[in-house]
Design brief:
Elements lengths: L3 E5 L4 H11 L2 E3 L1 E5 L5 E5 L7 E7 L4 H17 L4 E8 L16 H11 L4 E5 L16 E5 L2 H10 L8 E4 L5 H10 L5 E3 L1 E4 L5 E4 L8 E9 L3 H12 L3 E10 L5 H7 L5 E4 L7 E3 L2 H11 L2
Parallel strand pairs: 1-2, 1-5, 5-6, 6-7, 7-8, 9-10, 9-13, 13-14, 14-15, 15-16
Antiparallel strand pairs: 3-4, 11-12
Helix pairs in contact: 1-8, 4-5
Length: 300
């Protein structure tokens, strides 16, 4: 589609470049800087009138800053006459707070969705977005929404690396991750997949158990996010207790906070890889192809 232009936020310029190449469209420059008081300044350096503008932003680690950039860029594009504005949110912020767990809390993910609509975002493309209670983002975002997955790419990499074969059991570390395990297994033509059970006792403390038949089987764990690594470590122990052999771990978004990767390695979990939604040393596959397919579909 020749009327698409990509505009990159400051979070993940390399992915913006790969996306523009995948779609074979212009990557339009934008000036993004801070005023002396740290408020954001943005300016689109090109003509977006009657264009389908796609803003690529991955909002990990600096969600407030990157979200504000996306809002300002979206508003600027609409004011400049863009035909439509699509936010390609490689990593969507505030999705964890998707329920009012205690009195006085906001439902943060719904607030973000409202802000996007107010800023002029017509379409939203996410990548393996964290959704537990809000399964359908269409219920909180007024525009069109598509969630794409890098699970097929991650599993394909695992197969090429010799970690996954036809008998490998794909496992999600909790019930929410069953959807990722299903996508991963079916994309590779694998029959064996399932999920463990997790109990959370705080932001970092969890226990994982399960009743899967893993005895004597090679197990590959997939999840949307690896943050502290606690869930993966406990899941690996559960797999071992059930007689399975963990051969690798993959996630869409590798955050690896608080020395998480070191902690995984220390537990013997060394075959860990992720996508480029949040670039890090475990990145092995790009989300550009998945994002491009979602963008083309949503702009039909």
């Amino acid at each position: 589609m020749s009327d698409i232009v990509i505009i990159s936020g400051s979070s993940n310029a390399p992915l913006s470049y790969l996306l523009s190449k995948q779609l074979k469209v212009e990557l339009m420059p934008a000036e993004i800087r801070k005023f002396p008081d740290n408020e954001k300044y943005v300016r689109i350096d090109g003509d977006v009138k009657d264009k389908n503008v796609v803003i690529l932003q991955s909002m990990a680690f600096k969600p407030d800053e990157y979200l504000m950039e996306a809002l300002l860029l979206s508003s600027a594009a609409k004011d400049a006459g863009a035909k439509s504005v699509t936010l390609a949110a490689a990593y969507f912020p505030y999705a964890r707070q998707d329920e009012r767990f205690k009195p006085g809390e906001p439902i943060s993910v719904a607030v973000v969705a409202q802000l996007l609509t107010a800023a002029g975002v017509d379409n939203l493309v996410t990548v393996d977005v964290h959704r537990h209670r809000v399964i359908d983002f269409g219920s909180i975002f007024k525009g069109k929404w598509i969630d794409v997955s890098v699970m097929p790419d991650l599993v394909n990499y695992g197969k090429k690396a010799g970690l996954i074969d036809n008998d490998t059991f794909i496992v999600g570390p909790d019930s929410e991750a069953l959807q990722w395990a299903k996508i991963a297994a079916e994309s590779a033509g694998l029959k064996n997949y399932g999920a463990l059970k997790k109990k959370r006792f705080g932001d970092t403390e969890v226990s994982v158990s399960g009743e899967l038949n893993l005895k004597g089987k090679k197990v590959f764990i997939v999840d949307d996010i690896i943050s502290t690594g606690s869930t993966i470590i406990e899941a690996s122990k559960a797999v071992s207790e059930m007689g399975g052999k963990l051969v690798g771990v993959a996630c869409a978004h590798g955050l690896f906070v608080n020395d998480a990767l070191y902690k995984l390695y220390r537990e013997g979990i060394t075959d860990v890889f992720s996508s480029d939604t949040v670039p890090n040393q475990t990145t092995r596959v790009s989300s550009a192809e998945a994002l491009s397919k979602g963008i083309i579909e949503i702009l039909k």
